[in-house]
Amino acid sequence: MDSSRSAQRAVIQFLRAEVEYASQIYRRKKEVCGEQCIARCTIFRWCQRYEAGRVNIRALPRPEQAHVVTNSATISAVDELIRQNRRITIHEIAVELSINKGTVHRKIHKKHDYGKVCAQRPKHLSENQKTARWELDPSATQELLH
């Protein structure tokens, strides 16, 4: 027997339509499904919802869940903001586009393949490092002498 939640919801809805009590539904489901039976309180909750007139057995979206669709418009908007200001933060992009910071982070790193780049020059070079640089770039040596 299919023991998925949607299958169990369908059985509960059917038995509730036949005017079975929630406790009887739980006992029957426990006999058939065994350990894979859903919790007793869940069966009681679903029975209450079906009595109140709910007809859909699928889980309804919750209002606190953010549903953001990744489309080409938001991907290009993120790319455009980064190209305008390469020092922009993920938080600033999220506020600007009114989307989640995690979504912005995924778009930057997965879709655009951007990453942090540290290109600062070292502040203190040893004498060996200085001579090695001068040997690589003779024009820098001339500039320093003039």
3D architecture notes:
- The chain is elongated and about 95 Å long.
- It has helices spanning 5-17, 22-33, 40-51, 72-84, 90-97, 101-111, 127-136, 138-145.
- The chain is 60% helix and 0% strand.
- With 146 residues, the protein is mostly helical.
- The longest helix has 13 residues, at 5-17.
- Among the domains are: 5-52; 72-112.
What layout of secondary structure does this protein have?
Elements: H1 5-17, H2 22-33, H3 40-51, H4 72-84, H5 90-97, H6 101-111, H7 127-136, H8 138-145
InterPro entries: Homeodomain-like_sf, Transposase-MT_Hybrid
Biased composition (Basic and acidic residues): 124-136
Protein name: Mos1 transposase HTH domain-containing protein
Q: Roughly how many Å is the radius of gyration?
A: 31 Å
Helix content: 55-70%
The major beta sheet can be summarized as: none
What is the strand tally? 0
How far from one another are the termini? 88 Å
The run of helices and strands is HHHHHHHH
H/I helix tally:
8
Which structural class fits the helix and strand makeup?
mainly alpha
Mean pLDDT: 78
Strand content: under 5%
Catalogue the unreliable spans: none
Shape: elongated
